[in-house]
Design a protein that fits this description.
- The structure holds 3 protein chains of 3 kinds.
- Chain A is built from 11 helices and no strands.
- By secondary structure, chain A is mainly alpha-helical.
- Chain B is built from 8 helices and 21 strands.
- Classes of the chains: A mainly alpha, B alpha+beta, C alpha/beta.
- At the A-B interface, helix 6 and helix 7 of A face strand 7 of B.
């Protein structure tokens, strides 16, 4: 095995980051996606644009703003320090925060689409069958939106696996804490260690491809069943 | 139990202005042309259309009024939508149990087996909605609505999305439901056929306003309403089975104004049967004809006359307390010298049983 | 009274001016130089003096030495390469991509431990041992000579292992400086040239470790194309005027 301990650590950190980011986004993103799919507020488009922003912003821009925000002079970092905590630059927590912003649209948009596809009728029906709003959400909307949840989870996970620009800005490349695979590959190439670069990159490529195959496979299966 | 409702709902180009009282028993049909606001009214009663300033009292509960608005999931209703709206991710059994599982304790009334029997869906319980026909889906939807033991059943044109064959398949179920249910039923429809077969009371709606309310037989005979002036003007008469003439295959039906003899299969005595008598099948004579092929002749008083056109007149008669419509030529009215208060004999050439 | 300039002299004047003007245009050359990030400001001043003197244009591209090396290997069109180490120019020379014999040391990098805040780093660098900080920034030792030097110093002071989780690695010396400068890392090993400016005191606090603690960071340059202007530039860089500039920016010269 060509992997050395540091590379394996990088893989582990990357997977840990992807899992945590995905879980947080599913928890936080579901109510947002639900609101977006139900609301008829005329300024909803502002929120949708905000959510979509990380899709088009260069990751380095996002990383730059995060670095300022998380640093000791920034709003979040300053607040943390005032509360007796530590600033978040160069910490795994800081990476998680950055990844949550970075992968946000990849989780919220599929969820929003899936909730919209559920439509109003099933929920009205459930209301006439004594289901409270929360009950309707969990017993009708969520199960009917299952393909959306799977897509959101897989896309959020896979997207975080490939994160580079944001981590480059706020990660600090600390092995065992913030050194993720994409940075490790970059460093290997810079240092002319092509073999290791090949192994790590290949690993990530296969993992990403398998994940994407899963998404498309599942969605195909679901659309066939509901036909 | 009575139901009192007052709604004023503006939906852009359309507005509903309804003020009505609904009987707490039997089937009340909300009848009118498409787009007149029937569905909006039903949804408002169910709480699905949030509106300000409405008023709704059901029995002794105020569901809306004085700034209160009871959300739909707190109202004891069963609602059947126009398109079959079964939950695609649950099988038939779980669909039916959905509302049942959510009513608490004492409200947990009798089991759902009788309902399943009544609607003939026992053999479908393990299937998924996508495997059912439109008619089967609607029957499941009705069972589902009833399973939660609601105090009121609301049906929004449940047959509209079905083709004729499926409609005919379900109507009998609806009719037996009508006989068996003890809760008020609100039935929205634009189909005269359905209304005449199923309704006890009628709310006539047009352009967002209530035109008339009352027992179905009475509303259908009111000459101040447009429905009595088209070619299909009819009378709806409630009768009771009195006997059966086996030799001639005739069913004898008693009503408050006399009795009918109708060619039909036997039915148990005492059973109520609704008769549909088209106005154009009713002719009038001043003297009781003796040697005539028409079996159904009874005395009646002329109540009202309305000219339909140069040639046609509609006459409203009272056979005892029961109204009856007759469509004859204007010439005949003049020849017979008909006017309000005259005693005549109504001759009904044919009558259809609406409930077999 | 009119002053008449004889026609012949007029013509000669015009000709002379034209020739000089054209000569200036024809001879004005443009050279591209890849420069290690840390040397950016010094080279800028040097290039400006050169341009003023000779009329040639010097186009500078800043970046990490590793990246430049890879680009040059793949045919990037630079006339000369100012690296932050010795290794890359040597490799290019060995691989035949640089003119042999043109390699020379143009500056000696000096490393300092620096903090933008006045009382953080004392003149002996004992803050390294007290460990009174959350993060310390260095350039990535695998990629940058300054980073390698920082590692050597930390190892010499015996704190490399225990500080592992607190050492933040910048992709290049500039990012390391940015981490320290922004306060995200309280202090960092940066190029002296980043904080030393001509005619100004160094802001914040710093410790200049003795050269014996770390491998010399000879920064070497090499010619990539046989170009007269480029040669002239290289000569200029080794001249006295350039050396003064180089030293005022915090480098040593040979």
């Amino acid at each position: 095995m060509i992997f050395d301990k540091q590379d394996l650590t990088a893989l582990f950190i990357t997977l840990k980051l992807a899992v945590m980011t995905t879980v947080i986004l599913l928890i936080v993103g579901t109510p947002i996606a639900w609101w977006l799919s139900r609301s008829r507020w005329r300024f909803k488009f502002l929120v949708e644009a905000l959510v979509a922003l990380p899709l088009v912003l260069p990751p380095t821009v996002l990383g730059f703003y995060l670095l300022i925000a998380l640093g000791p002079h920034g709003p979040i970092g300053g607040l943390m320090e005032a509360l007796g905590g530590r600033p978040l630059a160069f910490t795994f927590t800081g990476l998680v925060i950055g990844s949550v912003f970075y992968s946000m649209p990849f989780v919220i948009q599929p969820l929003q689409n899936a909730f919209t596809a559920v439509g109003r009728r099933p929920l009205e029906v459930a209301a006439t069958l004594r289901a409270s709003p929360l009950d309707r959400f969990f017993t009708i909307a969520v199960p009917m939106a299952k393909p959306g949840f799977i897509t959101a989870a897989v896309l959020g996970f896979a997207h975080t696996l490939g994160e580079f620009g944001v981590v480059l800005m706020i990660g600090g490349n600390i092995p065992g804490t913030t050194q993720v695979v994409s940075i490790a590959v970059y460093d290997h190439v810079e240092a002319l260690e092509y073999t290791q670069a090949h192994w790590l990159s290949g690993c990530l490529l296969i993992l990403s491809f398998v994940l994407l195959m899963t998404v498309y496979g599942i969605n195909r299966r679901f659309s066939v069943v509901q036909a | 139990m009575t139901i009192e409702a007052r709604f004023h709902i503006d939906r852009g180009e359309f507005s509903l202005n309804a003020d009505l009282a609904i009987a707490g028993k039997g089937v009340t049909a909300v009848f009118g042309p498409s787009g007149c606001g029937k569905t909006t009214l039903l949804r408002a009663i169910a709480g699905l259309e949030y509106n300000e300033d409405g008023y709704l009292r059901v029995g002794d509960q105020i569901w809306q009024g004085d700034g209160q608005f009871l959300p739909p999931h707190k109202r004891s209703i069963g609602y059947v939508f126009q398109e079959p709206s079964l939950f695609a991710h649950l099988n038939v059994q779980r669909n039916i149990e959905y509302g049942l599982k959510r009513i608490k304790g004492a409200a947990h009334k009798a089991s759902i087996d009788p309902t399943i029997q009544l609607l003939g869906i026992g053999h479908l319980l393990n299937r998924r909605p996508s495997q059912l026909s439109g008619g089967e889906q609607q029957r499941v939807a009705i069972a589902r609505a009833l399973a939660s033991s609601p105090d009121m059943l609301l049906l929004d044109e449940p047959l509209a999305a079905l083709d004729d064959r499926l409609k005919q398949e379900i109507l009998p179920y609806l009719e037996s439901m009508h006989r068996e249910l003890e809760i008020p039923v609100l039935y929205v429809s634009h189909s005269r056929d359905e209304v005449v077969r199923l309704a006890d009371h009628l709310v006539l709606l047009d352009n967002g306003r209530v035109q008339a309310t009352g027992p179905v037989g009475e509303v259908f005979s009111r000459l101040d309403l447009a429905i009595t002036h088209d070619a299909d003007a009819e009378s709806v008469i409630e009768t009771t089975v009195a006997g059966y003439d086996e030799a001639f295959g005739l069913l004898r039906l008693d009503f408050a104004g006399g009795h009918f003899s109708v060619a039909a299969s036997p039915l148990p005595a005492g059973r109520t049967v609704r008769l549909q008598v088209l106005a154009r099948d009713v002719s009038l004579t001043l003297a009781h004809q003796q040697a005539t092929s028409i079996l159904n002749i009874f005395p009646a008083t002329v109540d009202q006359l309305v000219q339909e056109s140069d040639a046609q007149m509609t006459v409203r008669l009272m056979a005892g307390p029961v109204p009856l419509l007759s469509r004859i030529t204007r010439k005949s009215t003049e020849d017979l010298g008909l006017k309000t208060g005259d005693q005549v004999y109504a001759q009904v050439k044919s009558a259809s049983l609406l409930i077999p | 009274m009119e002053v008449l300039i004889p026609k012949r002299i007029q013509l000669s004047l015009i000709l002379a001016l034209t020739v000089t003007f054209c000569a200036g245009q024809v001879l004005a050359d443009e050279i591209r130089i890849a420069v290690a990030s840390n040397f950016a400001e010094a080279i800028k001043e040097i290039a400006e003096r050169f341009e003023a003197k000779t009329g040639h244009e010097v186009i500078l591209a800043y970046g990490s030495t590793g990246k430049h090396y890879a680009q040059i290997k793949n045919g990037a069109p630079f006339e000369a390469f100012f690296a932050a180490d010795v290794e890359r120019p040597k490799l290019l020379e060995d691989e035949g991509r640089a003119l042999s014999g043109s390699r020379f040391t143009y500056a000696v990098g000096k490393l300092v431990l620096w903090s933008p805040k006045p009382d953080v780093v004392d003149a002996n660098g004992s803050v390294l041992n007290t460990g009174d900080f959350r993060f310390i920034a260095i350039a990535n030792p695998k990629l940058a000579p300054y980073g390698k030097a920082a590692k050597e110093i930390l190892q010499a002071r015996g704190v490399w292992d225990q500080l592992q989780k607190r050492i933040v690695r910048g992709e290049n010396i500039n990012q390391a400086f940015q981490f320290a400068h922004s306060g995200n890392a309280e202090l960092g090993f940066v190029a002296f040239s980043k904080v030393k400016r001509p005619n100004r005191a160094v802001p914040g606090s710093f410790w200049q470790p003795p050269q014996s603690l770390y491998s010399a960071i000879d920064q070497q340059a090499v010619l990539l194309k046989s170009n007269a202007t480029a040669r002239a530039f290289m000569a200029f860089v080794q001249g006295e005027e350039a050396c003064t500039i180089i030293q005022s920016y915090g480098y040593g010269t040979l």
